[in-house]
Design a protein that fits this description.
Blueprint lengths: L5 H12 L3 H9 L9 H11 L6 H11 L5 H17 L2 H9 L24 H25 L20 H19 L11 H30 L6 H30 L15 H15 L8 H60 L1 H10 L38 H5 L4 H8 L25 H8 L18 H4 L7 H10 L72 H5 L11
């Protein structure tokens, strides 16, 4: 299984097309390639855990989903990625795993697809037990965080203000079982040097080795704190403390075996701490003190002498455990220092790359190219004003290449035309009421009439009709020549006069339509029906003089022909004799 498979590449391409960068990074970190997750993918995912806009639940669920894959390589690498993020990522990731109900359901995992691997390489069937143990440890690590609300691998360790070293007796007796459970799950990984045959399981072993150093350092501090408070506890607390110390001795042996495997796989001896065991007399002193509290008689010494001897044994044991604690603490500090130096180196490298990019962008040549290619960059050029006057002709370019797309101001030509003499004088004296018509109502009453004279008006509109229905307006005390002017300086008077004299293009009015029945009219053709007869055109029914059939245009005595009173008076003889003009506003 060398390199990425086609399925890995297709899955990464699908995430790229969907714009799912986080899912693509998870896919890249958990390929079927038989090596550990690459550092660049792990560093990117660690960076994502520190970003506030990245969804931690989504990241965790993507990794849990990858752990359900059928390939043992993908499952193992997903567990390694989760473990790496719990160790080096933001604590929010561990908090989510601890608070959510989601966990790795891999207690029955078995990969039967590759029963026989290459020579010297374990198959998926052989790796399946380690996957089950590894997932159990990660579940226990999240569970311990949920129980005590802190990570044992990241807790502060020191004699003066260490969390586990200064914890009170009651809380210490409740915390130690949780720590023991997590350490037990780690030691159950139980691999040998022969099992570490590929890069995947090797990377998981290194992460477990890192956790073991920190877990046992905290575990050792807790036992020292427990021994120092042992003689001040009550009977129940002493019984629990003695049981915890016996379990500590068993786990110390198992930790020694794990460290031997680490030494055999090539880890430097300087990175492996020294494990100093407490003398066996310490256990005897603890048991005898508990027996004295429970009322059992001591055959050797008096209670006072026994207590003094027991305290001396406890001090000796605490001194031996302190050396172990110092050794483990030093190794953990060195590892933390290396990790911090690596982190600072990465940050310095990123800062150098960023400064180089800024220098490249701010350079004159690249800055111009970047500005031209950036559609969102605010341009320093002025916005084209469609209604502004153009610049003088001497400053305007006349080259055809300057306006290849013809994007010049379309309104500039009308303003660029030379001004006439009257326009120039008006513009020079724009503050005067005569030139500034925008400051008035459109009529200059202080000057001569701005409208056309009567002669020009008569040539266009004709002479006003002098009849009784539309008499010419007269003004009291005015001369006859003044009454002939239709337009005056007053707007309302001019409009009223114009409306009264509005007869444009007078034409001869057609005679009124006479309604005669075609049945009573004689038909030509010498009395022979159908000979020489032509149909009469129907009169229009939409004209101004239209009258319905059977209705006469005049009434006699206020009554219609049919005898019905229409409420109309008979018109005078003078008015009925004259044809009524048709009011046609369009002059047709």
């Amino acid at each position: 299984m060398a390199g990425q498979t086609i399925q890995d590449r297709l899955l990464a391409a699908r995430h790229s097309l969907a714009g799912q960068g986080l899912a693509k990074s998870v896919c890249k970190a958990t390929t079927e390639e038989l090596i550990g997750p690459k550092k660049k993918h792990l560093d990117y995912l660690i960076h994502c855990t520190n970003e506030p806009n990245v969804s931690i639940p989504q990241l965790a669920n993507l990794l849990i989903e990858r752990s359900q894959n059928a390939s043992w390589v993908v499952v193992f690498k997903s567990l390694i990625t989760v473990h790496h993020l719990m160790c080096y990522g933001n604590e929010r990731f561990t908090q989510y795993l601890a608070s959510s109900n989601s966990s790795f359901q891999l207690s029955n995992f078995l990969d039967k697809s590759s029963l026989q691997g290459p020579v010297g390489v374990r198959s998926g069937y052989d790796m399946s037990p380690f996957i089950r143990r590894y997932s159990k440890y990660l579940n226990e690590k999240a569970l311990s965080y949920r129980t005590v609300a802190f990570d044992f691998c990241k807790v502060k360790r020191s004699k003066e203000d260490g969390v586990l070293r200064t914890m009170n007796s009651e809380k210490l007796l409740k915390t130690l079982p949780v720590l023991q459970s997590q350490l037990d799950a780690l030691l159950e990984f139980d691999c040998s040097a022969a099992d570490l045959s590929n890069g995947v399981i090797n990377m998981s072993f290194m992460l477990l080795f890192r956790d073991l150093i920190r877990l046992f350092a905290g575990y050792n501090d807790s036992i020292i704190n427990l021994l120092e408070k042992y003689f001040d506890m009550n009977k129940k607390q002493c019984r629990d403390a003695l049981d915890l110390y016996k379990k500590f001795l068993i786990r110390m042996d198992r930790v020694g075996e794990f460290l031997k495997v680490a030494e055999n796989v090539g880890i430097d001896k300087g990175e492996i701490p020294d494990l100093t065991k407490a003398p066996s007399s310490l256990l005897d002193a603890l048991e005898q003190h508990l027996a004295s509290i429970e009322g059992k008689k001591s055959a050797a010494n008096t209670p006072t002498q026994a207590t003094s001897t027991h305290r001396t044994d406890v001090k000796t044991g605490v001194s031996a455990l302190s050396s172990t604690s110092s050794s483990f603490g030093t190794i953990a500090q060195q590892a933390d220092g290396v990790e911090e130096s690596l982190k600072q180196a990465v940050l310095a490298e990123e800062e150098a790359v960023l400064n180089q990019y800024k220098a490249k962008v701010n350079s004159p040549v690249n800055g111009t190219i970047a500005s031209a290619n950036n559609p969102f960059l605010v341009s320093s050029e002025p916005i084209v004003d469609l209604f502004s006057c153009p610049a003088p002709a001497t400053q305007m370019s006349t080259k055809a290449s300057d306006d290849l797309l013809q994007l010049s101001n379309p309104f500039a030509d009308m303003f660029s035309a030379p001004m006439t003499g009257s326009q120039t004088s008006a513009s020079n004296d724009i503050s005067t009421p005569l030139a500034n018509n925008w400051m008035s109502n459109g009529f200059n009453t202080n000057t001569s009439n701005a409208f056309v004279d009567d002669k020009s008006f008569t040539s266009v509109f004709g002479q006003p009709e002098s009849n009784q229905s539309c008499p010419a307006p007269t003004a009291t005390g005015a001369s006859d020549s003044g009454n002939k002017k239709v337009l005056t300086g007053d707007l309302d008077s001019s409009l009223a006069s114009l409306a009264e004299n509005l007869t444009i293009n007078k034409v001869t009015q057609p005679p009124p339509v006479q309604w005669n029945s075609p049945k009573n009219a004689p038909k030509p053709g010498n009395g022979q029906p159908g000979m020489g007869w032509s149909p009469q055109p129907m009169a229009a029914t939409t004209g101004a003089n239209y009258r319905p059939m059977g209705v006469q245009p005049s009434c006699i005595g206020g009554s219609a022909v049919g005898g019905g009173n229409l409420g109309m008076t008979a018109p005078s003889s003078t008015q009925s004799s004259q044809p009524q003009p048709v009011l046609d506003p369009f002059g047709l």
